[in-house]
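Follow-up to my earlier ticket, as requested here are the two runs.
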Amino acid sequence: IVSGGAWIGLQPSEAPASTAPLGHLSASPSQIRVIDGRTLRLRDRTVQLAGVQTAERGSACDGSAGSDCGAAATAAANALTDLVRDAGIDCALSGAGQSGRPLAMCTAGGQDLNLTMVASGWARAAPGATAFAAAEQRARSERRGLWARHWAAMN
């Protein structure tokens, strides 16, 4: 997942916008689908958690062929699924990412999903997401989430 200090096999979600939210989106538990470790389908809209990076299925974790990030990507998606299970979601939309999907700062059951994914080690702070940098460092040093297994060699 890291090669020369850069992550391979990851798609960044841009840092949270410093401007006012561009909209709001809410969904009940039955209207939520986890796409991957940073992407949610809420009713008829797909959003990405702003300021986080996660492993991508089918991408090389260390830059070499045959080193699929599938296990890391699945673990991150499962962690996000656990966070939103049986909880409604509220998201503040803050623009669009490189994929064109809305970027969002989301809460579920009163818990900040963006920060929690990073703090628990299931995602990494995206470049420029300074609000999440300390949480990532703590997760790394305490070997939480993916830092315990898949990304342990990244320190």
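Run two:
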Amino acid sequence: KSTLFSGTNEIFPDNNQASGAYEVMLEFAIRENDQATVFGVELSNAKGEQLLIGYDKATSKFYINREKAGKSDFSADFKGLHTAPFNLSGTLVNMRLLIDVASVELFAMNGEVVMTDIFFPTEDFRNIRLFSNNGESMLKSGTVYKLTTVTGKKD
């Protein structure tokens, strides 16, 4: 079932906070009258640190923004917005994310765009949210899997 959303929306309702490693698969539908310019996934913690992974329709780029993702004082070059250009040819945007405590991998548009980033939050990111800026976005489908280690233990 498709869902319209704006602002930020918890993927784990009822304070069922995330921890460990996850695979998140999302498909967004771009509607003709959509006002939202930026949409995606936010990882955050109680200290206000956050990592944003999304698509910017205005610039036609996927991005990972780790400006506020935790420790970065070891290098002036570490903070930043990392982008990958992609011009949409249709109305669907898909993202597959592999998330663990210190890294994220983005496989977008069935692997046509691939990005990896590391981050160092001062406490684990325990919130995973969808976000949409400047209007509503439509989530056509979404699936979240909790990942286990090769030994079968959950993180």
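The only thing I checked on run two: Residues 24 and 144 are 5 Å apart (CA to CA). Let me know what else you need.
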